[in-house]
Amino acid sequence: MDIQIENLTKSYGPQKAVNNINFDVKTGEVLGFLGPNGAGKSTTMKMITGYIGIEKGDIRIGGKSLTDPESNFKQHIGYLPENNPLYLDMPIIDYLEFCAALQGVEKTKIDDRIKEMIGLCGLNREKHKKIGELSKGYRQRVGLAQAMIHDPEILVLDEPTTGLDPNQIIEIRKLIRDLGKEKTVILSTHILPEVEATCDRILIINRGNIVANGTPETLRKQAQGNEVLKLRIEDGDVETILKSLNALDTVQEADLVHREENLFEVQSVAQQSSKRNIFNLCVEKKWVLTELTPLETKLEDIFRNLTVN
Ligand SMILES: Nc1ncnc2c1ncn2[C@@H]1O[C@H](COP(=O)(O)OP(=O)(O)OP(=O)(O)O)[C@@H](O)[C@H]1O
After folding, report:
1. Dist. CA 47 → ligand 1 center (Å)
2. How far is CA 195 from CA 127, 187, 303, in A?
3. Does the first or last residue of the chain, that is N or C, have fewer Cβ atoms within 10 Å of its Cβ?
4. pTM of the model
């Protein structure tokens, strides 16, 4: 089920938490929502799930506006809110039963759905405890289980791996990826490797505005300035190698990074690659090229460039 966000705006008093944003999410896509603290991620997610009202603009779920009185969007959405509010006095199973009933799961199917969620979210060992007796990570697992209990077509997950241990993080990321093959998933996170591990596309929001929208590869390509290569060239005098690299017409600047290890870093002139020239130079001079690695722009650097202001 596709989601379309059109000119969405939300203010709190004089402050625009979300400022006229537009984006789509398609079925079978996992969208990673990134942004610094206070950027507007949770506010956007709350509007998509109907938790708070829309001030301006529209949200369409499966083509139907949320404001359409006939839109029964809530039954298609599973939501894990930011602070994962749970009823602390309730045992896990009772709570999931309550959520399933609330979400309209057929009575005869509730027990099976609960069993499935307990397995999927790794709750088996703790399933007889009350929610208030659970550790932070296990509470997060209960939050995920309630979000998925009615097998919704859309999942909106606000920082889903917060508080989970490294083993569970890997399992939950895999689960999200698998779910994302058929469902529409939006997740917010501050963990950049998480986006690379789980998401098909990244949306970066800063101060209520979308500042980037694309796959990790597209964002890298857009951010990538000139080609930067790391080289190891052996069997030659280091100073001569450095001088020769700097003399190549595709090279803007060559630097010696580590003298003992014969490591150099080369930045090419804009729109040009120096790989072939470097290779030919080494052949001509009978130097041995034992390493040539393009240095990629890190997602952290892209994020910082777009959001530090
Ligand atoms: N109920 C509220 N009343 C007033 N201001 C609010 C309210 N909720 C959010 N805001 C403000 O709106 C802005 C966006 O907040 P939001 O929670 O959407 O950010 P976020 O990107 O989810 O941040 P974080 O990563 O810290 O969770 C912030 O400046 C926040 O202070």
Report:
1. 12
2. 30, 9, 12
3. C
4. 0.80
